[in-house]
Specification:
heterodimer; A: 261 residues; mainly alpha; 11 helices; 2% strand; globular; B: 318 residues; alpha/beta; Rossmann fold; Alpha-Beta Plaits; 2 domains; 6-stranded mixed sheet; 4-stranded antiparallel sheet; 14 strands; disordered C terminus
């Protein structure tokens, strides 16, 4: 059988990449699924149980309840980003990314396959952290579709972010720099632990430039029904980041920047 | 039908290094073709461009008629490539390494599994299919890369030094395998530093040097261009200082070995007749160098001499 790649062929390639990424997540579950559970359990114990009981209510919910959606979203962001940046950079570093580059796969298929892996990891970790959260507090999901769509869209945005990081990375240090110096500060300042109503006007305005604020609050609206930002604005902002990140990725992959000579 | 047609291919890297300087190359479908040259000559760059891993600066490349500028996907579908460096996913199993690549070429999973089994069996890796690729020996990794390259049944297989670091036994079995798939219709382009490998396997050869094609012809034609061969003879008796071999020049290596030049118009019968006339008994004989290697070295030497001459020329130096 001699092949040229039809749309069906591209779908098979997409399925293959997504499957390969999922198998990787399962194969190294001790690195991918367990650490977030331990970290988030500590957050719930220290910030929720010990400190939260002294803070009292926030936006009409006890602190543990208020914090839970933020922590779930934080784990989704960190893990979807981390999955793609490590997987894609590792493929580039070891050289087996060439398997995809010499095959007749369209650039968007390479991107979507890795994003699918990032979403799978984000949702898997998000689900586990939600189960952990339910040991410490209880909440009734107010808008399930909004909650799920927020998780998926956020995981997609940060998977694309991880891919851009991996494309430009030339050594393993480069893979750690963005999560440490950009992602972590933005996440901690993105309304995970507090409502922006507590901030002075100036810092509340500055927070409006933080994309994670929209994701955390959008998801919190889906779970608790409260948000610091308008839900339509949150969707619009996430879509802007999604389109911009995808366009950047597509340009980089199709031009071969960082991956071809 | 041409499996590969390259015209005016140039590559200038961002640092200004010109790796390819307008090369023209045609490879017929079904051929077993050797692309030779010293390190840094441009072989791997040329292969990188053909397989789309390197962006070209100029020129055209067609693979079975598909232009890589306008019909890249179709061109890629025709090619299987075995790179010089081992680039397997070291955490993946042998089986998955091959099945995944089949998926990248659009083979449905059931078919991908069948093809993976066939390729792994042909390359004697089926028994190791569940092991992580990092646990394989160097030779097995090379064979796995060949299996991976063949899983989508490419019409053109490009091998960039496939037997580097492989022991003689495995190298010979790989030669047999490559001959077998070539007989079945797969066009093969081979780069290698083992010139006896190219001489043994390939019907056509191109020698690339400093980004230019220095020689491009049938292997037999290229080898006929050699004016002489040098043989090393081991003598039964100690070499005598006044020894003369009528019609042949020789040079002593030690007390019991000499090098004899046999020109293109001479043959070994004449040499042995001359040895008998001189009363010289020979216990063994071997080629001093591989013939293709000799030609290769002459081309490179000629280039070096020309460069030295140019540098010495005051008009050029100014």
């Amino acid at each position: 059988m001699r092949l040229t790649m039809s749309m069906q062929g591209q779908l098979i390639a997409l399925h293959t990449i997504a499957r390969k990424e999922t198998v990787r997540i399962i194969r190294i579950w001790l690195q991918t699924l367990v650490p977030p559970v331990i970290t988030m359990t500590l957050y719930f114990i220290i910030f929720g149980n010990l400190i939260g009981s002294r803070i009292g209510e926030m936006a009409g919910f006890d602190y543990m309840q208020y914090m839970a959606p933020g922590l779930i979203m934080m784990s989704v962001i960190t893990n979807s980003y981390g999955n793609v940046v490590s997987s894609f950079f590792s493929a580039k570093f070891q050289g087996h990314l060439q398997e995809m580059l010499v095959a007749p796969i369209h650039s968007y298929v390479i991107i979507l396959g890795h994003v699918a892996g990032g979403i799978v990891r984000g949702l898997a970790v998000g689900t586990v952290v939600t189960v952990v959260a339910l040991f410490f507090t209880d909440f009734k999901v107010q808008h399930p579709l909004i909650a799920i769509s927020m998780l998926v869209l956020t995981a997609a945005v940060f998977s694309l972010g991880g891919m851009i990081n991996a494309i430009f990375a030339t050594k393993y240090d480069d893979v750690a720099i963005i999560p440490s110096f950009v992602l972590a500060p933005l996440t901690y300042l993105g309304g995970v632990f507090y409502t922006t109503a507590l901030l002075p006007d100036f810092w509340a305005s500055v927070s409006a430039f933080n994309p994670i604020l929209y994701m955390v609050n959008g998801f919190r609206y889906g779970i608790l029904g409260v948000s610091d930002v308008n839900i339509v604005t949150a969707y619009a902002m996430i879509m802007v980041f999604l389109v911009a990140a995808f366009a950047t990725c597509y340009y980089l992959i199709s031009q071969g920047i960082g991956i071809r000579e | 039908m041409k499996a590969l047609s390259i015209h005016g291919l140039t590559k200038i890297y961002p640092n200004g290094v010109q790796a390819l300087n307008g090369i023209d190359l045609d490879v017929e479908a079904g051929d077993f073709f050797a692309l030779l040259g010293p390190n840094g000559a441009g072989k791997t760059t040329a292969i990188g461009i053909i397989t789309s891993l390197v962006n070209k600066t100029g020129g055209t490349v067609r693979v079975f008629g598909h232009d890589i500028d306008s019909d890249l996907a179709a061109a890629k579908s025709c090619i299987g490539v075995v790179p010089q460096e081992i680039n397997l996913n070291q955490w993946e199993t042998v089986y998955n390494c091959v099945v995944n690549v089949a998926g990248f070429y659009g083979l449905p999973r059931k078919r991908a599994k069948q093809r993976a089994e066939t390729c792994l069996r042909e390359l004697q890796l089926w028994d190791r299919r569940d092991e992580a690729s990092r646990n394989l020996s160097g030779g097995m990794k090379r064979r796995l890369m060949i299996a991976r390259a063949l899983v989508h049944e490419p019409k053109l297989l490009i091998l960039d030094e496939p037997t580097a670091g492989v022991d003689i036994e495995i190298r010979r079995s790989m030669w047999d395998f490559l001959r077998h798939i070539n007989e079945q219709g797969t066009t093969i382009i081979l780069t290698t530093h083992y010139l006896e490998e190219a001489e043994s396997l390939c019907r056509h050869v191109a020698i690339i040097d400093e980004g230019r094609i220095a020689e491009h012809a049938r292997m037999s034609t290229v080898l006929r261009k050699l004016h002489q061969e040098v043989f090393v003879l081991s003598l039964v008796d100690e070499l005598q200082p006044d020894m003369h071999i009528n019609g042949f020049a020789y040079m002593a290596i030690n007390d019991h070995e000499i090098e004899v030049e046999v020109a293109s118009g001479q043959n070994l019968n004449q040499l042995f007749a001359a040895l008998s006339d001189a009363g010289i008994a020979v216990s063994s004989m071997r080629n001093k160098t591989n013939r293709l290697e000799e030609l290769f070295m002459r081309l490179v030497d000629r280039r070096d001499k020309e460069r030295t001459k140019q540098l010495a020329d005051p008009e050029i130096c100014v």
